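Appendix C: a fully annotated inverse folding record. The material below is reproduced so that readers can follow the format used throughout the book. The structure is listed first as tokens, followed by the designed sequence.
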């Protein structure tokens, strides 16, 4: 690990596949791959941050689930409809505490979002 700043360019990201995911999300990751969704880890704990960026096509459904760690989600482009009825669009944020159950459906324009956590999270799909 470096003590200095780390720079990563969006145009040079390595996108993960279902094979790169933890076993508990393998089926969802395979469905995401088939739909054209993709995810890249921007950080893997460097300087205390676990951050990834995800892109999903319109209509993609992420089922109810929880994470073992709280997260900050920032919608960069497009929109999602959260299971509680909230619609989030570009520039909107969600601060989701650990173990809070939620899901979402991607809006008509697809979505690109960033998630930041202070630890690597376990996911529990319900």
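Designed amino acids, in order:
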């Amino acid at each position: 690990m470096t003590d200095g700043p780390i720079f990563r360019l969006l145009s040079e990201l390595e996108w993960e596949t279902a094979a790169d995911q933890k076993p508990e999300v393998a089926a969802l990751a395979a469905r995401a791959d088939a739909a054209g969704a993709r995810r890249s880890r921007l950080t893997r704990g460097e300087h205390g941050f676990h951050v990834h960026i995800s892109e999903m096509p319109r209509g993609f459904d992420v089922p109810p689930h929880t994470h073992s760690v709280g997260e900050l989600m920032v919608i960069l482009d497009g929109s999602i409809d959260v299971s509680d009825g909230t619609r989030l669009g570009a520039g909107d944020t969600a601060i989701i505490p650990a173990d809070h159950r939620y899901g979402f459906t991607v809006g008509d324009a697809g979505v690109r979002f960033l998630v930041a956590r202070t630890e690597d999270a376990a996911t529990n799909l319900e």
